[in-house]
């Protein structure tokens, strides 16, 4: 068993920092390594979830359970199903209010490896150092921006009844390499898939003013059910952006839902929208721009499947 400890100090209140770390639905938008988080169970003070995250440049997936105590600002986590070369992984978050103000954040890990060799242990140690530093940096950055977290980090959805089989709508989203021929606002897509179900996608789209916007995303695909994605380099107005396409059947009706989770960058509002614009303006701008693209894509998926 190996153990690591990562510490960071923040000027933000401990409860604000704890609440950010406790809500895994926000992780894909605020934590660089996290691609997608899916709850399997949510109870009072405990939860289970599957996580997909970048680990040393690869997308790994595992199932974790957590115990959460908001009174002492403590979180315990343990992986039930780890991803090789990790054999087991657990740890704790501690948020300790300081007498002089601010918070000491302590992130602990304990782990074993499938093969207890120097190169394997070095790989795991490097991943923990890299991911922990990124997560702690972003956690403190969001909490110290001076705005209520819920106004900076939020989600929104658009749902469309497709009237076509879920598999056909899923296939339209999955084959994003064909979007330049199928979607008017997409100019170019470079799509790579390795392993199956994990995609790397570079896309150029046309914006409303006629300029070209490039994005780079990693996508996790669950056949006929879900495609979750994370923008690796978000636009200036966002500190983070993740989303998912989900397909469900309710009776005879097939529903497609596009969800976005975003973290707004207040420092970029003036540059992108104008010096007199507010955080509320940025919220509306992001909601409108992302929502229009998603609804347009789903509408084209429906029309394409209808033939």
Describe this structure in words.
The chain has 307 residues and is an alpha+beta fold. 29% of the residues lie in helices and 45% in strands. It has helices at residues 14-22, 27-30, 118-143, 149-152, 166-174, 179-182, 269-273, 279-306, and strands at residues 2-10, 34-42, 46-55, 58-69, 74-81, 86-97, 103-113, 153-161, 186-193, 198-206, 212-222, 226-231, 238-250, 253-264. Strands 1-7-6-5-4-3-2 form a seven-stranded antiparallel sheet. A seven-stranded antiparallel sheet has the order 8-14-13-12-11-10-9. Strand 13 (238-250) and strand 14 (253-264) form a beta hairpin. The termini are far apart. The mean pLDDT is 94.
Low-pLDDT residue intervals, each spanning 5 or more residues: none
The share of residues in extended strands comes to over 45%
Total of DSSP H or I helical runs spanning 4+ residues: 8
- Percentage of residues assigned to helices: 25-40%
* Main sheet characteristics: 7 strands, antiparallel
- First CA to last CA: what distance? 58 Å
Shape descriptor reads globular
Order of helices and strands: EHHEEEEEEHHEHHEEEEEEHH
Question: How confident overall, as mean pLDDT?
Answer: 94
Which structural class should the secondary elements be placed in? alpha+beta
Radius of gyration based on Cα positions: 20 Å
Number of DSSP E strands: 14
Strand order of the largest sheet: 1-7-6-5-4-3-2
In short:
The chain has 307 residues and is an alpha+beta fold. It contains eight helices and 14 strands.
């Amino acid at each position: 068993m190996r153990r690591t400890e990562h510490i960071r100090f923040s000027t933000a209140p401990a409860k604000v920092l704890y609440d950010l770390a406790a809500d895994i639905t926000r992780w894909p938008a605020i934590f660089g390594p996290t691609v997608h988080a899916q709850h399997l169970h949510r109870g009072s003070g405990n939860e289970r979830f599957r996580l997909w995250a970048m680990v040393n440049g690869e997308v790994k997936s595992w199932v974790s359970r957590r115990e959460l105590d908001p009174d002492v600002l403590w979180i315990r986590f343990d992986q039930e199903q780890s991803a090789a070369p990790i054999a087991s992984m657990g740890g704790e978050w501690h948020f300790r209010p300081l007498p002089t103000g601010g918070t000491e954040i302590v992130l602990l890990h304990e782990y074993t490896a499938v093969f207890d060799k120097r190169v394997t242990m070095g790989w795991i140690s490097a991943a923990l150092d890299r991911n922990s530093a990124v997560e702690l940096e972003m956690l403190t950055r969001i909490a110290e921006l001076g705005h209520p977290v819920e106004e900076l980090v939020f989600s929104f959805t658009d749902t469309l009844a497709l009237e076509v089989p879920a598999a056909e709508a899923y296939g339209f989203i999955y084959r994003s390499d064909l979007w330049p021929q199928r979607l008017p606002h997409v100019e170019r897509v470079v799509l790579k898939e390795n392993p199956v179900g994990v995609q790397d996608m570079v896309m150029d789209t046309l914006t409303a003013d006629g300029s070209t916007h490039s994005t780079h995303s990693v996508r996790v695909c669950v056949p006929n059910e879900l495609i979750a994605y994370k923008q690796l380099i978000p636009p200036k107005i966002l500190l983070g952006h993740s989303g998912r396409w989900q397909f469900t059947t309710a009776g005879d009706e097939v529903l497609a839902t596009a969800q976005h989770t975003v973290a707004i960058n207040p420092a970029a509002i003036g540059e992108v929208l104008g010096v007199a614009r507010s955080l509320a303006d940025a919220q509306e701008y992001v909601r409108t721009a992302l929502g229009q693209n998603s609804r347009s894509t789903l509408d084209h998926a429906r029309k394409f499947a209808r033939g």
